[in-house]
Amino acid sequence: MDADAAPSTPGKWKMEKPHHHYRHRLILLHRLQNLPKLAFWTFFAFALFLAVFLLWPSPRSHFSSGSVRRSLGVSAAPWGGPAWEKRVRSSASARRVSSGKSVLVTGAAGFVGMHVAAALKRRGDGVLGLDNFNAYYDPALKRARRALLDRAGVFVVEGDINDAALLRKLFDVVPFTHVVHLAAQAGVRHALADPGSYIHSNVAGLVAVLEAAKAADPQPAVVWASSSSVYGLNSKVPFSEADRTDRPASLYAATKKAGEEIAHVYNHIYGLSITGLRFFTVYGPWGRPDMAYFFFTRDILRGKPVSIFEGPDHATVARDFTYIDDIVRGCVAAVDHAGKSTGSGGKKHGSAPFRIYNLGNTSPVSVSDLVSILEQLLKVKAVKKLVKMPRNGDVQFTHANITLAQKELRYRPTTGLQSGLKKFVRWYLDYYSSSLSKHGSKGRTTN
Ligand SMILES: NC(=O)c1ccc[n+]([C@@H]2O[C@H](COP(=O)([O-])OP(=O)(O)OC[C@H]3O[C@@H](n4cnc5c(N)ncnc54)[C@H](O)[C@@H]3O)[C@@H](O)[C@H]2O)c1
Ligand SMILES: *[C@@H]1O[C@H](CO)[C@@H](O)[C@H](O)[C@H]1NC(C)=O
User: pTM, whole model, 2 decimals?
Assistant: First the structure.
């Protein structure tokens, strides 16, 4: 909710081909009609040449996407060149050549992406990050995460997943064995302000990533983040993978559900190994400022009232909060159990795994209990305001059935909300007090 104050992703669907090229062609065709035959064919050949020249997608598209991003206020970092390629290659090289994987992590400057990239690097895998550093929430936090990855030996390329030329280049330079695709427009309420950003990143962006993966040789296995929000209006608990997911309550949920269907297509047609992970409310150090546990902490410390949502008839709103380290272990296990893609050169050679797992914690906690824990950890009493939950996308209750992930990924969450929030609060106080002293008062504005 607070996050809506910030401008959003370069949301609009990108027009790869500027209008004036089309207008150009139309004018040419119009003039043609009054000319004799020979001149017609000369003109036709010229027009064809012009059209091919102007509309040829590569390598111009890389420049055009840069200028589109610049015009939308996202700084465009140039990419390419021998030094850049060397950096990409070295970041993506596994330490242990025999068993090490080479993983492209999209959304690496994000909350989950940073933790997953760091964990994979720590155990010896080669890791390359990709993120567009959009301003949905404070980009300074994303840059701080990138600095941390930099120190761990992970290079995060600045670019959009919709930049097909960039993705092609990355797969040309590195034969990635896995893609962990976490880049997305997250958050439920922001869709009211900027629906296009959800389509841009979660639908078009996912297709761009799957297109690149399918065309790569060797094809990587893909692990990507869906969401518990696909369970939508379901009231049967706990939520199991086989339950219906055709009643989303938000555009965010609808784009994640669409993503699951799109993933199935790429698995079916191209033999891509694809694992979808339905995360349940992930929290922890380096978390997302648009999530309740995060801005409750900020508001409690500032003495600002916190809104506690209630369902109809004062029903409690609860979430299956899942600690980041548990999610990371689930992601890494999904990489290790992914199974191979079978295609090559865009052709399928056999069936490949298509899987979906819940990654939750199996113990929902009410929002008022969340606030009580924060009060106790911060040693500050919250000013509480009970508010009827608006019908703008949030569901009342989430609770994961993790039997499947337990069985197949040996996924076992071990951190309860109390001890997880303790680690979050410690990080929060440290991060904002040190960024306050480093950057003056700027560090305080998290949105
Ligand atoms: N955190 C949760 O509770 C939660 C719950 C369910 C699902 N998920 C999913 O998990 C994934 C990671 O979430 P998170 O909490 O780390 O969010 P996040 O916003 O911190 O991370 C996403 C990152 O992707 C980047 N990004 C967005 N659009 C992009 C684009 N078009 N090109 C390149 N980069 C782009 C953003 O800059 C951001 O750094 C997302 O797919 C999210 O939908 C998260
Ligand atoms: C949990 O999911 C498994 C399938 O993975 C299913 O067999 C089981 O019935 C579900 N349990 C509940 C309580 O819904």
Answer: 0.84
Query: Any idea which ligand is nearest the CA of 401?
Result: 2
Q: Is the CB of 227 under 6 A from ligand 1?
A: yes
Examine residue 294 and state whether it is found in any structural domain, yes or no: no
From the CA of 292, the nearest ligand is 1
Q: What angle do CA 308, 314, 319 make, to 5 degrees?
A: 55
Nearest 5°: phi and psi at 325?
A: -65, -35
Please give the span between the terminal C-alpha atoms of the chain, in angstroms, as a whole number: 10
Of 297, 289, 323, residue with least CA distance to 139: 289
Inside any domain, residue 272: yes
The residues carrying an active-site annotation are 252
Residue range of the domain that includes 205: 76-283+322-361+399-415
Instruction: Tell me whether residue 199 is in a domain.
Output: yes
> 166 in a domain, yes or no?
yes
- From the CA of 282, give the closest atom in ligand 1: 3
Q: Which residues approach ligand 2 with their CB closer than 6 A?
A: 238, 240, 401, 403-404
SS3 308: strand
Tens digit of each residue's pLDDT (9 = 90 or more) over 82-130 = 999 999 999 999 987 657 899 999 999 999 999 999 999 999 999 999 9
